[in-house]
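Q: Sequence in, structure out?
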Amino acid sequence: MATTYPFPDNVHVSSLVTLKLTDSNYLLWKTQFESLLSSQKLIGFVNGAVTAPSKNCLVVNGDVTTEVPNPQYEAWFCTDQLVRSWLFGTLSEEVLGHVHNLQTSQQIWISLAENFNKSSVAREFSLHRSLQLLSKKDKSFSVYCREFKTICDSLSSIGKPIDESMKIFGFLNGLGREYDPITTVIQSSLSKLPTPTFNDVISEVQGFDSKLQSYDDSPSANPHLAFMTEKTNPCAPQYQPNSRGRGGRFSQNRGRGGYSTRGCGFSQHQSSSTPQGERPICQICGRTGHTAIKCYNRFDNNYQSEVPSQAFASLRVSDENGQEWHPDSAATAHITNSTSGLQYATSYEGTDAVMVGDGAYLPITHIGSTTISSAKSTIPLNDVLVCPDHSHLTLILYT
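A: Exactly. Output:
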């Protein structure tokens, strides 16, 4: 019985194999092309299951034996050339240059496998080395993920897949220091059941990355956030938003008018430019590689910095009259010793007082407002308390 070979000449290959084979997508291309061949019952032409019949056959006519072309070979050859043309149509120009002189579809398939799917020790070592050295650095998160997955897919394509836990470890290891908070959380979850998958980890880090990018896109001209000074000390100032004590309002009484300093202050963030090439230093935790706006500890109300005195020693700004204002990390109001530096002031008729570090109580005579202009921003101060017994013109932060 003669063997027949299919010849599906009406197949739109470009609709089924959407990728052009390049140096970086062999595994994906192979998956698509194998599906196409299997659906048309032609996979045997490339994997060797379907062998080529002999080109000629012998015909016996009486005592005469004649060699004639084999019609089965002609049928096989036409189908094989159809598959060969499909292969050529899905190769990039660079790849096509390496296999254009091969005559059968199986020869092309084997050549591509040898070039892109090598299982040699040298290739495995090279891919593992690339994975170990891969880091996000200045790349976007999506680019870093794509490069990491490409290397993992290449290892899988040569029969050397990476263990799920090692894949997670390598992925987290390549992230920068600004991702330390989410990295620490994920690593601690690896010891618990059920353990997260690699895709779970990507989703978690992607959410954290989106949060970081939202900080980058936030406006920088908000007067309540834009308190900036020139930094001359390479040690970054560190801000403690939750300490209590010296300089704070003590009395809980309310006088006429119900005056209270609660809510009259503002959150202060210092940002300073760094020399070109140097990494920024966080003003909250003191680590290099990120600024306060990206610090994970800024959401932790219990976090305490290590050297608060050093942080606020460098925060000093002068107003338009040349008077210096000094910050105090543990205070709850703005205080000055005279109304001369205020743009607006009214007499205070309440009974509250201000307690300072030595336990003394300072009477409040006026309440006013002013504006401090630094080299890089303007800071409005409202509800400034006037205490004539106070020895310094002081900016005291609300916490």
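The two ends are 93 Å apart (CA to CA).
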